[in-house]
Amino acid sequence: MALVKPLDPNHDPDTKQLAEFFNETLGFCPNSVLTMQHRPAISKAFINLNKAVMANEGRVTSALKRMIAWVSSNATGCRYCQAHAIRAAERYGAEQEQLDNIWEYRTHAAFSDAERAALDFSLAASQVPNAIDADIKARLYEHWNEGEIVEMLGVISLFGYLNRWNDSMGTSIEDGAVESAEQYLGKTGWEKGKHDGSRY
């Protein structure tokens, strides 16, 4: 079980209404949000931030944003967020070849140089200590404008919060996310780990 139990989806009406956003992105309200409801101001602020970060203001597609989230979550080791990110990438139209080869984004032909620059940005920004350098910056500016870079870092930062939240909480992972993770990430060793509901 998680460190703190998720509350019923009907616990806070305002959170429930805002959480309809996740029915599109994931097909369910995440247990992380249901746990945040213990302090509804947090759950509501988080959902609004999530919606703002995932809004498309430039050329950074919904699918690429979810792949950025996956790379960030992979770097930090949060299996819960890895599963959610790959599921959302699938639901937002990432190419099958990209989903099947996300682990090889640096070398696989399914990824463009612009996508590689974005995903390398995600990896470098998610490391501790932070690994953003002049090379990462130069490669970003070859393909993306400042607003788009802000959008990408918004995703990386949002998932920094989620990685800390869910790995510390041991959030139980939902069946739909497990299915997507096993399909696309299982071949390289993904498993539920602490998110199987029995850690604490």
Automatic annotation (TrEMBL):
Top-rank lineage group of the source organism: Bacteria
Keywords noted in UniProt: Oxidoreductase, Peroxidase
Domain Carboxymuconolactone decarboxylase-like: 40-120
MF annotations from Gene Ontology: peroxiredoxin activity
InterPro entries: AhpD-like, CMD-like
Protein name (database record): Uncharacterized peroxidase-related enzyme
